[in-house]
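Hi W., the manganese (II) ion complex you wanted:
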Amino acid sequence: MAAKFFLLALLALSFSGALASGPSQLQDFCVGDSRGGVIFVNGFACKDPKTAVAEDFFFFCGLHMAGNTSNKQGSAVTAVNVAHIARLNTLGISLARVDYDRYGQNPPHIHPRATEILTVVEGSLYVGFVTSNPENKLFSKALNKGDVFVFPQGLIHFQYNCGTTKAIAIAALSSKNPGVITIANAVFGSKPSILDDIVAKAF
Ligand code: MN
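Structure:
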């Protein structure tokens, strides 16, 4: 009986380990089939791998072009994930370009399903993340062109352009579908609203 329980516990542990990131794929790739494939892997249709061609792995996303930063935050995220490119299905990776006006910011947010590694390709940024409860410790750093910083999965993080010019960053994320929760929008802008008393008491 004890041995059986131990075995079950071990199984549960190994499954939870496997699910800590995107599930491992059992094939080289699952090329999305725009005509509607018959085989679905991780929620997306795959075409017959024998019919895959180089074009299936080429994406024109225009990432050399700046996003539109005329908004209150003074920033723009151009994401390239499985929502834009079905071919990323099962590959556990995605990309984003972020543009920042002078004093623009990518406000505090979370990616529930991905760690992010970001490099500054133009300008300079002040970046940081905060650890979980109870410490809530801030790790922050000023970055210059060519510098790289990592934001661990699920932690609140931000970037702020403190330089004298526009800034550009490229971020890679460890999920085909990292997800984004912008803290202020989620807490103050939910639909319908969280009761004022609850928000006021929390802050
Ligand atoms: Mn991010």
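The longest helix spans residues 2-18.

W.
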